[in-house]
From TrEMBL:
It comes from the Bacteria. It is found in: Membrane. InterPro entries: HAMP_dom, HATPase_C_sf, HATPase_dom, His_kinase_dom, HisK_dim/P_dom, HisK_dim/P_sf, Sig_transdc_His_kin-like_C. This is histidine kinase. It catalyses: ATP + protein L-histidine = ADP + protein N-phospho-L-histidine. The keyword Transmembrane applies.
């Protein structure tokens, strides 16, 4: 099957096909003209045969008359046999001329020859020979005059045919000469055109194949030297343009991969920094937890509940520190099958209790299950929902939409009605320490993306249905081993 419309392969096939067709046409034309020349030569041979037969007929009639004369001179029937042979020769030549007659006039002349030949035979058999044998000189003289008249008529018609056939030979020679001249001229024209077309095909190949390939080679060389900003024009038609586009996408992917490596290095630096201060952070957190637990033994009612929340949040702080430490250490924590909706509703409830949502309406829709580290997943969702609420502002709306994927994974899309993300900021959202807020460290989205990638997923940012930003957390499907453990 041929390639799609506009492809380089098909264009080359069409160009070579046209070239072959042109050479085939030239060859076919030359063969056709050779056939014309062959037909003309054949017609020349046939015309020559007709001239020969006409002249031989005139000679055969003269031979026939010679035997008539010998019969008169000798006064006997000794030349009857020779006369019959000459008559048979005349008959054979007359039949041949009848078969070779080209038009009505020639056929009429042949018929006249046949008629006079038959009359000559009758005069010899029925009148002249009996008169010679009877010694009737008067009758012999009278019949002889009639015989001479018939012989003259046959010779005249035969010579007229020979002259006519000879003229046709000249016409055929002129036709064959014209065919040869035209054949040479057209063959030269077609072969010259085919040569020029072949040169055009070569130029086309140079422009549409050689140059794009050279640009691809040059781009590959620049890429090998580390120039990740290398781009190749994609305006070439067909497969080479597609190859250039694939090359540009590959270059962009390498650039994105390098950017990710830089980001991971930044996260590793953050992890190493966190490891250096973890002991100092954990000590005051331990003291806080100790005093909270002492107070919990004495507190009752609402105070006990409040202390319980303080304890949980202090524990969460410890877990966040441990999460930062995990960024600088290989390996992952244990995975569990969790309800994504329950986790989202719990995150929203916690933020609402902590008065971090203000007057923002938060809706949670859909449901799905996923394999994840529950605390890590909760940390990512808490960060995304809190950011969305801050972007939406007072009276705004945040939508948390949970959907299972066809392959067994899950996605959580968190949209807000805020101003959205500027296009120039979108590619830097997940860089460590990058933030568009007046307050904050710029680590939230970077850590969230690292956690998502540790789960085998990712976070994507775009414009949501509420007009603001939308951050989509995608979690991959569970492996067969995890499904077996569930």
């Amino acid at each position: 099957m041929l390639p799609t419309s506009g492809s380089t392969t098909r264009k080359l096939l069409l160009a070579f096909g046209a070239l072959v067709a042109l050479f085939t046409a030239a060859s076919g034309f030359a063969l056709a003209r050779l056939a014309d020349i062959h037909d003309g030569s054949h017609q020349l041979r046939e015309a020559g045969n007709r001239v020969r037969d006409a002249l031989e007929l005139a000679t055969a009639v003269r031979d026939q008359y010679a035997h008539v004369a010998h019969t008169i001179i000798l006064g006997n029937a000794s030349h009857v046999h020779f006369h019959e042979e000459s008559r048979a020769r005349v008959e054979a030549l007359t039949r041949s001329l009848r078969e070779q007659a080209q038009d009505a006039e020639e056929r009429a002349w042949v018929a006249d020859i046949q008629e006079n030949g038959d009359a000559l035979e009758r005069l010899y058999r029925d009148a002249l020979l009996p008169a010679v044998l009877a010694k009737d000189h008067a009758t012999v003289t009278a019949v002889h005059s009639q015989v001479l008249e018939r012989v003259s008529l046959v010779q005249s018609r035969a010579e007229s045919l020979a002259h006519r056939f000879d003229n046709s030979i000249g016409s055929f020679e002129a036709h064959v000469g014209a065919v040869e001249h035209n054949s040479f001229r057209w063959a030269l024209l077609l072969l010259g055109g085919a040569t020029l077309f072949a040169i055009g095909v070569g130029i086309y190949i140079g422009n549409s194949v050689a140059r794009p390939v050279a640009r691809l080679s040059e781009g590959a060389a620049r890429l090998a030297q580390g120039d990740l900003d290398t781009r190749i024009p994609e305006n070439d038609p067909g497969e080479l343009g597609q190859l250039a586009a694939q090359f540009n996408r590959m270059t962009e992917a390498l650039r994105a991969h390098q950017s990710q490596l830089v980001q991971h290095e930044k996260l590793a630096s953050v992890g190493r920094l966190a490891a250096g201060v973890a002991h100092e952070i954990n000590n005051p957190l331990g003291v806080i937890l100790g005093y909270v637990r002492i107070l919990q033994r004495k507190a009752e009612g609402p105070l006990a509940e409040d202390l319980k929340v303080v304890e949980e949040e202090a524990v969460r702080c410890q877990q966040i520190v441990e999460g930062l430490l995990d960024l600088s250490r290989p390996g992952h924590g244990p995975m569990e099958k969790v309800s994504v909706r329950e986790t989202c509703e719990d995150v929203v409830a916690r933020l609402r209790e902590a008065e971090r949502l203000g007057q923002v309406e938060v809706r949670v829709e859909g449901a799905a299950s996923a394999w994840a580290q529950p605390l890590r997943l909760r940390q990512v969702l808490l960060n995304l929902v809190r950011n969305a609420a801050e972007a939406a502002g007072t009276g705004g709306t945040v939508e948390v939409r949970i959907e299972p994927d066809k392959d067994g994974g899950a996605s959580v899309a968190i949209s807000d009605s805020g101003p959205g993300v500027k296009p120039e900021d979108r590619r830097r959202l997940f860089e460590p320490f990058f933030t568009t807020k007046s307050t904050g460290t710029g680590l939230g989205l970077a850590v969230s993306q690292a956690i998502a990638e540790a789960h085998g997923g990712r976070i994507e940012a775009d414009t949501g249905p509420l007009g603001g930003a939308r951050f989509t957390l995608r979690l991959p499907p569970a492996s067969a081993e995890r499904e077996a453990m569930a």
